[in-house]
Specification:
By secondary structure, the protein is of the alpha/beta class. It has a domain of about 190 residues: Rossmann fold, CATH 3.40.50.720. The chain is about 40% helix and about 15% strand. The strands form 5 sheets. The chain has a 7-stranded parallel sheet with strand order 3-2-1-4-5-7-12, sandwiched between helices. Strands 6-15 form a two-stranded parallel sheet. Strands 8-11 form a two-stranded parallel sheet. Helix 1 links the parallel strand 1 and strand 2. It is globular, with a radius of gyration of 20 Å.
Length: about 300
Amino acid sequence: MMKRILVIGCGDIARRTIPLLTPRFRVFALVRRAETMDVARSLGALPLRGDLDERRSLARLAGIADAVLHFAPPAARDAAGAASERDARTRRLLAALSARGSLPQRLIYLSTTGVYGDCGGAWIDETRPCRAETARASRRVDAEQRLRAFGRRRRIAVTLLRAPGIYAAGRLPIARLARGDPVPADDVFTNHIHADDLARLIVAALFRARAGRVYNAVDGHELRVSDYFDLVADACGLPRPPRLPWTDLAARLPPAALSFLRESRRIGNARLVRELGCRLRYPSVAHGLAEIPALYSMPRALRTKQTHHAL
């Protein structure tokens, strides 16, 4: 029986997930900075100071929990400062968890649908092979492979949740819209999940996910990227973004933004609904935006201070 849960990475999704767990479990949260320790405590978790980039700081993790929720993103560069396509953080975490005889029973990893690469707008499911096209997505593939091998070798139930663009109040492309950044005229398909729904899916996976299973944590709603930006713009009282051909976009947007816009896929969530049995509160972006009324009434000067992108 699971009694203790270790959360790795105390970012936004962890902060939404922890309050769903504390009524039933003792929750530990690995945090890097002293100021985050107070945040973890306020959520009901016991903070553990440690850094996935410093192996020695992870000694306390061995044997501490029955289940691990791994939310930490890979580092973009290795210890020498070179760009990397491997996830050394996950490697260090698994080494720390294996340092003693007591291992977790279950491990949930929050990955990304970016591992599929460009699918040409086709509908896909979890049987689609990974075809990562960026170093960022390749690091996620490396993490997934390490975790699945760890699960098989140690007989731990490892589950992968692949999330797309996560949105919520505070996670909307307000700054991009306020700047008037363009979107492609030759439109691509994009996928989304509301941050609160994702937190609920993570908890459902703790109890219902199959060992070694991959789940696309998406709302399953078909949406083009320009339509997404239009929905957000309309909801926030901002101008809709201009459409430009790809040749002009390259001169207006940074490479990181372009890489998101170049990949087109539509991702179904039938396995998620069937096996996890978790009904989404927000089955589309339109539903999610309708539940953020406070955002609509914000003065524009405050809205534009939100800097999160949602692609």
